[in-house]
Specification:
The chain is of the alpha+beta class. Helix content is about 35%, strand content about 30%. It is built from eleven helices and 13 strands. The structure holds zinc ion (ZN). The site of zinc ion (ZN) has 6 residues, from loops.
Length: about 290
C-alpha cells in the first residue's frame, strides 16, 4: 500500500441532491507524513493521531468560519494526548504525547478515560468550545456523540489511518432540511460497507461510485490540504512576555539563553539576554508586571 499513484491531499465535498444529506471525503498522504515527521511516534499512536487529524479536517469543513478547529483528546492511559488542528484554508498540524509504553488497541485501551475537546477559534468573534467524554468503541463514535450534543445533527464519520495514509468520510443531514429516516439509514448502511483498504487506496470519485452508485451525487470542487505549522517567533515572544520578566530572568541566570522548540514542527526558537531585553523595552507589559511585584 506504500507506493500507490493516486491523487491525495484534498478534501472533496459532495451532496446527495434529493436526500438532504451532505458528505465530505478526505484523503491525505504527503500532508499527513509531513505533519508527524518531526515527532517520534510508534505506529499505533500514528494510527490514532491520523484518525484524529481526519476528524478535525472533516469537522472544520462542516462549518463556515475563518480560523482554526482544534481537536484535543486527553486521557489517563498510556496515550495521553492527541491534538489535531485544521484551518479554514485546509492547513493542518498534529501533536501526540504518550508515556512510551503504548500498546496497540482500541481508543479506550490506549487512552483510558478522558475527554474530547473541540475548540473553534474564529478570527472574528469568541472562541467556541465543546466537550464530550471519550466513550465509545472508537473516535468516530465519540464524534457522532459530539455532533448530536452540540448541533443536534445526525452525523457519521469513518476514520482510517496508517503510517502512510489518512482518509475519512463524513455524512451529515443538512441543517433545516431533514432527510427522511429511511433515506438516511440507507445511505449509512451503504457507507458502512467501506473498508480501511478501500479508503486508504481509492480516490474519492471511485470510492463514491462503489458505495453509492444508485444515488445522485453532486461533487464540489476539490480543496487541497497541506501541512503548515502556525508557530512563529512573534507568538513565542508573546508567550514569553506573558510569563513575565522575573521568570525569564531566572532562566537566563541559569542558562544564558531561553530555548523554545515548537512541539508540532520542532522549529527551534532561541532568545539571548539582548533578545529578552528588547522584548520588554518600551513594552506596556513591563509596567504591568512591575506593578504586580
Ligand atoms: Zn511549529
Amino acid at each position: 500500500m506504500n507506493t500507490i499513484l493516486k491523487k491525495t491531499d484534498y478534501l472533496q465535498r459532495f451532496l446527495f441532491e434529493d436526500l438532504g444529506v451532505r458528505g465530505e471525503w478526505l484523503g491525505l498522504q504527503l500532508s499527513w507524513q509531513e505533519s508527524k515527521q518531526k515527532q517520534n511516534l510508534c505506529s499505533s499512536v500514528q494510527e490514532k493521531l491520523g484518525e484524529a487529524l481526519v476528524a478535525a479536517v472533516l469537522m472544520s469543513a462542516t462549518i463556515k468560519f475563518e480560523g482554526s478547529l482544534i481537536l484535543q483528546a486527553q486521557g489517563n492511559g498510556s496515550l495521553k494526548t492527541l491534538v489535531a488542528q485544521a484551518t479554514h484554508d485546509r492547513t493542518i498540524r498534529v501533536l501526540a504525547r504518550d508515556d512510551g509504553t503504548v500498546k496497540s488497541g482500541s481508543l479506550s485501551e490506549m487512552m483510558g478515560t478522558g475527554r474530547l475537546v473541540i475548540t473553534i477559534e474564529s478570527e472574528k468573534g469568541e472562541p467556541y468550545q465543546g466537550i464530550v467524554s471519550l466513550e465509545g468503541k472508537d473516535l468516530s463514535e465519540v464524534i457522532t456523540t459530539y455532533f448530536l450534543q452540540s448541533e443536534q445533527l445526525q452525523t457519521r464519520v469513518w476514520l482510517f489511518a496508517n503510517e502512510n495514509f489518512a482518509a475519512g468520510l463524513l455524512l451529515q443531514e443538512l441543517p433545516g432540511q431533514e432527510s427522511s429516516k429511511t433515506d438516511w439509514e440507507r445511505i449509512i448502511v451503504l457507507a458502512n460497507t467501506v473498508t480501511k483498504q478501500e479508503m486508504l487506496t481509492l480516490e474519492c470519485e471511485e470510492m463514491l461510485h462503489r458505495l453509492f452508485n444508485a444515488e445522485k451525487v453532486r461533487l464540489f470542487e476539490q480543496e487541497p490540504v497541506s501541512f503548515k505549522c502556525t508557530c512563529s517567533k512573534k507568538k513565542i515572544e508573546n508567550t514569553l512576555i506573558a510569563l513575565g520578566r522575573e521568570e525569564l530572568e531566572s532562566i537566563l541566570q541559569e542558562k544564558n539563553e531561553i530555548n523554545v522548540d515548537c512541539e508540532f514542527c520542532a522549529e527551534h526558537y532561541s532568545f539571548d539576554r539582548v533578545d529578552i531585553e528588547s522584548l520588554f523595552s518600551g513594552s506596556v507589559f513591563e509596567s504591568n508586571s512591575s506593578r504586580h511585584h
